[in-house]
Write a structure and sequence with these properties.
mainly alpha; globular; single chain; about 80% helix
């Protein structure tokens, strides 16, 4: 049951991050899931520990998850932009 919750949570956070970063593009659900899971783990964990909430589900962890997923999506876009421009040379 925990794994199912993590997948659904990752998809939701990834979708919110995609909506923030790429409002006009269709959602790539695989990318959203990966960004949501990685962003939730890194951003949520760091934000929760900095706020002193521990590992409980708190607003600081939720906000950190979304911020982490946005950062992951921006990094992916930077990498894609470099690979596309390198292929044109």
């Amino acid at each position: 049951m925990l794994i199912l919750f993590l997948i659904v949570w990752g998809m939701a956070v990834g979708w919110i991050a995609h909506w923030i970063v790429n409002r006009n593009e269709p959602v790539n659900w695989t990318e959203a899931l990966i960004a949501g899971l990685v962003g939730s783990f890194v951003g949520g964990l760091i934000a929760s520990l900095i706020a002193g909430d521990g590992l409980d589900l708190r607003p600081s962890g939720i906000i950190g998850s979304i911020v982490g997923a946005v950062i992951v999506l921006l990094i992916v876009q930077m990498i894609r932009g470099r690979s596309r421009s390198a292929g044109r040379r």
